[in-house]
Amino acid sequence: ESSLPNLLVVCGDHGMSETGSHGGSSEGEVHTPLLFISSAFEKRSGPITQPDLVQQTDLASTLAVSLGLPISRNSVGNIILPVVRGKTMREQLRFVHLNGFQLSRLLQENAPAYEKDPGYEHFKIAEKSHSNWIKLYLEGNNSEILLNLGKKVLKQYLEALKTLSSSLSKQVAQYDMYSMMVGSVIVMEVLLLLLLSIPKALSSRAVFEVPLSPPLFSLLFYLMCLVLCAVHVIVCTSAKSLCYFCSMSWLTAVGVMMLISALMCAILSAIMRIFENSRLPLKNPVVSSFSWSEIDVLILAGTIGHTVSLGASSFIEEEHQTWYFLTTTLCLVLCQELCRSTFLLNECDPQHNVTLKQNFDAVEKASECKNIDISAADNSKLGKNASSAEFIKGSDKWISLASPWIILICCRLLRSLNQTGVQWAHRPDFGHWLTSSEHKSVLSLLAAVSLLTIFFLVQRRCSFVSKIAMALGLLGVYSYRAAIGNVIFPWQHDSKDISKGITEARFVYVFVLGIVFTGTKDLLKSQVISADSSVKSTGLWEVYSGLILLAALLFRPHNLPVLVFCLLIQTIMTKYIWRPLKFDAAQVTIMHYWFGQAFFYFQGNSNGIATVDVSTGFVGLESYVEIPAILFTAFATYAGPLLWAIHLLCYLSSEVNRNSAAVGHGCFCYAVICSIPVAIYIVLVTVLRYHLFIWSVFSPKLLYEGVHVFITAAICLFFTAMDQNHSHKMRD
Questions:
Q1: Is residue 245 part of a domain?
Q2: Which has fewest Cβ within 10 Å: 115, 324, 411, 578?
């Protein structure tokens, strides 16, 4: 009854297969109903016909024309003609001409040789026919000739639109497969080289060397370079579209080919060396023997399971659930290890003690023959069982047994603080309750208690000057949050005096730089002047304390408990789990990595770009400054993995009873455990490039992993710099 007809559109973004899957490319998953209901349409009569098959991109163009709006500039869809069939021939031709003009303009912007495109040529022909039809129409010709010519022009337009849309869609969905394959090959070669180097890198000498000099002078290397260069020439000369790798200079391309060839030759050399060593008889079977514990099985199964889960979009969206499950399972296995060490070893019979002593004697003799530190034997399972039994007999036995359950409680509280992912992100959490204006006093109390707890947990290993700087810095953090209106002081009754808090934030930055500078001075002293491990340990802890203070400044007030629980769990695991059970450096490293990943999601992060808190890039800045903004945002986002990695270095450096190669072992294991999921994920993304959620799910995750790789590389460089003393000893 109204002057303008209504329109109801029923549609879906994807279909579903018979098994319930909706992310693939099967016919059931990519075909979905599209229904238009309007009083403007003519009532259909006669038998039901097969519905037309249209592209999902056609919906935008059709709705724009139907509502009298301009078609989106970057739209590649066509008008669905049955929707406008009730209009006059002149209006229909006007609609398809507008659609064709928009597509031809888009083609001109994206294709240099657009004039040779078949769709563009067809559109120009249709335009000429359209002009002839308009001349007849203006002359008042209403004969059958005008109607037939109109149908012919309409058919020409539709063919031109179909061809133009197809050409543009191919450009949008076009992947530079050659460049992607080259990058994937290099990544997989590096990963394979790391995996083949595990036995030597985790030995007592902790040597990781890439044997590039022999391959560079081998015939295989030059043959591979020649073959790869020939393939490069063939691909680049026959490529019809733009290729990033082909656009590089020939000098750069040849360098990449030489890198691929050298890595391949190094891999083959490492495989041959392992094969030759496997033929040699074992001189000391006690030292070389290895048995799998529950922790080792969990670490292997968890790493493989997490890597495989990256092939499913739902697991990527809810990846936090994977890390929560792995850390919870790890705590339960640690509880089992503590119970076994506490109760079972107390009931050992004399025969077990004799066997234990004989094994220790054999290990000691073997270490003397190989010139290996005795501390390496102490890190074995034999030494671990004996030393843990002695430790847990003390007064801390019950605290040690309760520590995994305390960690589980902390993790459960952290899960309630921030909802993340996709499925349950809309549900209210404790963080939303705290940030509401009605509970500002509760948030203020929680922030104050959190900052006091952070000071208590951090100051125990700092120097006197750093303790004062830390206390003043944490006071500055609260003052900054009060200045911008997040929290209030007890004597404040309103938040009228809100500012940017630039002075308070810069006040904290001064103390952060001071603490980091003090730690760096101690590190340089331990590296250059003296090799005192206590000075080095203090320096590392002060650098770590400076980063804690920076994180406290950048974190939002309701996220300060995340920092508190991070320090609390690290303290509990150091004193009551890692030291009594004497896990080796590789196991401790992977535990740090797992908890670092879990704390990444405890902060409220996800694999979606929307959860990145860009406001941290403006803390203490009057305007946008690119480099500080990028660094602050990256640090605040990856604070969890970064702080756990730096704590790993502090822990391994402070353990004087460990093998001197422990830091090197930790660095190598951290690089491997980070590289495995990234390398496999790059291959998975390449294979799943036509997946329905490639841009909404897989691509953001790839961006997160890319930044994580850069941070991991920086961490490994820091590890290597701190391991120089061991390198000097190995040379001596």
A1: yes
A2: 115
